[in-house]
Amino acid sequence: MGRANPTEMYDLVMESAARTLLDFGRSRLRAQLGVTTVLHTWTRELRFHPHAHCIVTAGGLDADGHWIPARSRYLFPVKAMSRVFRGKLLDGLARLYHRQELDLDGRCASLADPAAFNQLKDHLYRKEWVVYAKPPFGGPEHVFQYLGRYTHRVGISNQRLVSFDGRDVCFRTKNGNTTSVDGVEFVRRFLLHVLPTGFVKIRHYGLVAAANVNTKLEVARRCLSDENTVAQVPHLQVPPTWRDLLLALTGIDVLVCPACGGRSIDRHPLPRDSGKPPRPRDTS
Q: Which residues in the chain come in under a pLDDT of 50?
């Protein structure tokens, strides 16, 4: 069902994960958390495994504007979160089904029968779902390093490719191991992780939602800065863009016009103190 309805199912996974955490923050801390979710769809073998990684604030802001810290090493118990997450996701799935917003053709055709769908839903409710919680990060640099593993990446990087003998592709998996699959299967697995057009894989909720960035988030920052010295985020190496890779591999700079040698994009800041256009720069 997930492959036939990628946008709906990916939305459901990310929203259910974030809403579970926000609900626990309200019920257990009486505070609003900040949650950033990142969609991840692959295993190291490139198999289809959609799930959400979440960065969660170690506490939240209460209704009076006070910071409420987490009470333990782990924010909330994972078993309780797994059951609430399961309930939210399956409830959302049922709503999509009853609104007839799911594509149930092909291998999902049997689920068009409400009895079959309810049987599947009951089966999923009986299963134990997995929610994994990590200990708190050591500082902001660890948060950026963690997010960097899952953002702006495709299912497999060039560094993990070992060889291609004309038939099979060999690539690295876990703990120094490798696996080999034929070329067609490799391409099939890779394409499983191409997201729907326009899909947003990084989303922010609660304190870090766009509506709260200049209000509640600023209050939370002031609360925390009053208690601790805010550490400076160290300089982080930015991963190369596709333009950088193309330049390194072919010597072609797509931002340079091949005819005149000039830059195809030249940005200049607009003056803030007047509505007049900027003076032309001397290019002689």
A: 229-238, 274, 283-284
Domain layout of the chain by residue ranges: 6-155+197-240, 156-192
Q: Which residues of 152-168 are buried (b: 16+ CB within 10 A; e: fewer)?
A: eeebbeeeeeeeeeeee
Q: What is the pLDDT of residues 27-68, one digit of tens each?
A: 999 999 999 999 999 999 999 999 999 999 989 999 999 999
b/e code 17-40 from CB counts within 10 Å (16+ = b)? bbbbbbbbbeebbebbbbbbbbbb
Give dist(CA 92, CA 18) in Å, integer.
13
Residue 166 · residue 15 · CB < 8 Å: no
**CB-based burial, 200-221: b 16+ in 10 Å, e otherwise:** ebebbbbbbbeebeeebbeebe
